[in-house]
Specification:
The chain contains 5 helices and 4 strands; from the N terminus they run E-H-E-H-H-H-E-E-H. The protein is α+β, with helices and mostly antiparallel strands. It has a single domain, classed as Glutaredoxin. Strands 2-1-3-4 form a 4-stranded mixed β-sheet, with helices on both faces. Strand 3 and strand 4 form a beta hairpin. The longest helix is centred in the first third of the chain and has 12 residues. Belongs to the ArsC family. Keywords: Oxidoreductase. It comes from Streptomyces stephensoniae.
Length: about 120
């Protein structure tokens, strides 16, 4: 299991604390430093069952600079979104946990972290 975190994020710290409390075996990925490639983002999106705009933080300053809220949300725009997430990792919603069963969750709540733990994490 891997968790993508920003250490400055309280939701990320809470998720890591819960994983530790549950004795989970996991790897931390500081995705702002170890930026996911477009391929890794595609893989996580498939595991999440989401589209790139579903995990984009549209309130970030860079999102406003890019005009992200105005971007089309359709299959023809998917690669543009993925490229933006890879080029500007601050745009990626956090934390994301990839579970050992091949799925993933956006773990912004204790319930979501527990869900990931229940997936063979």
């Amino acid at each position: 299991m891997e968790i993508w975190i920003n250490p400055a994020c309280s939701k990320c710290r809470g998720a890591v604390s819960l994983l530790d409390a549950e004795g989970a075996d996991y790897t931390v990925r500081r995705y702002l430093e170890d930026v996911p490639s477009p391929e890794e983002i595609r893989d996580v999106l498939e595991r999440l069952g989401l589209e790139p705009w579903d995990i984009a933080r549209t309130q970030e300053a860079v999102a406003k600079e890019l005009g992200l809220k105005e971007w089309a949300r359709d299959s023809g725009s998917r690669e543009r979104w993925i490229a933006a997430l890879s080029e500007h990792p601050k745009l990626i919603q956090r934390p994301i946990i990839t579970a050992d069963d091949g799925t993933a969750v956006v773990a912004r709540s204790e319930e979501a972290v527990r869900d990931a733990l229940g997936r063979g994490a």
